[in-house]
Amino acid sequence: MGMRRLVAHPVEGRMACLVVAESDLVRSTEIGGERKVGTSVEMNAIARAVQRQIDGCATFFYDAWVNQYVNSITGDYVEFGSWGGNTMNQAYIAMKNAGIDRHMWAFDSFEGLPPAADDRDYHPGWNPGAGKGQGGVDKFYEACDKHNIPREAYTAVEGYFDTTLPPLGLDGAPNDIAIVYIDCNMYSSTVTVFEFLSPRLKHGMIIAFDDYFCWSPTTVSGERSAFHEFSKAHPQWHFERYKDVHRAGVSFVVEHADQLS
Ligand SMILES: C[S@@+](CC[C@H](N)C(=O)[O-])C[C@H]1O[C@@H](n2cnc3c(N)ncnc32)[C@H](O)[C@@H]1O
Q: How many domains does the chain contain in total?
């Protein structure tokens, strides 16, 4: 009997699905919609990397939720870049395990990365504007159903950030946020996210980046570049390095800078 096992999780900001089919010797992996075939040694290496990211997310989200609860930080979970529902799933499981109940938000085009608007949007691991399509928000609902995340637990907002976020203005919901998870890969997308977050920042909020250490041979990570620019332009906020999420992901806690002077 053939065996089929599917593991899905972002690898360097892309979705990697490892499929073990027919026998342990026939393996292929799908990254960003492209099927790659490799030896079982190579495929095992990818599976190990994926599992380490899942484990990292699980630990990070659990600790972050417990900390927000212990420190009386109110608010929702807000994610930018959600389509596979994997990080959302880890955040949801950890929240439930911590005995916490907060609303969750998933912002995504659910159609893939937009075209590049800046040199810093490029990376060897992803392809802005490739337009492969991710099946729209219905595929995201399906993914969340499979993860047993109830529909009422979250709100999915479909569309490119530059069309969905500005209409929310300075105080449209979500406007009380405990944890932000940024997994939109690109510099320009992260800039738009910070324009939205700017009036919603509050002391004690945690901001996590999935692709903070996805540099390239010539560029700093796009998420990191956008965050660096934002923090320089807003010295009233101090962003203290908090916990690592996984190999490429890190998080920060937002603090009033004047308390540290
Ligand atoms: C790595 S994937 C997210 C994976 C997801 N966190 C998971 O665990 O399944 C990055 C996502 O960011 C979204 N994205 C990036 N820039 C965007 C933008 N400007 N507007 C809307 N969605 C964007 C893409 O559509 C893509 O689905």
A: 2
Q: Report residue 128 CA to chain centroid gap.
A: 16
- Percent of the chain past pLDDT 70, that is, above it, reads 85
Domain range for 137 is 55-259
Do the Cβ atoms of 120 and 225 come closer than 8 Å?
A: yes
Nearest to 134 by CA among 6, 10, 18, 4: 10
Ligand 1 shell residues, CB under 6 Å: 10, 13, 15, 81-87, 108-109, 112-114, 134, 160-161, 183-186, 189, 192
The answer to whether the CB of 91 falls within 8 A of the CB of 121 is no
Say yes or no: 37 and 164 in one domain: no
pLDDT at res. 173: 98
Q: 251 and 163 in one domain?
A: yes
User: Of 130, 128, 143, 144, nearest to 34 (Cα)?
Assistant: 130
Q: Ligand 1, closest atom to CA 83?
A: 27
Cβ burial of 249 (10 Å; 0-12, 13-18, 19+) is buried
How much is the pTM?
0.89
Three-class SS state of 179: strand
**Nearest atom, ligand 1, residue 181 CA:** 6
Tokens found for residue 75: 């608010």
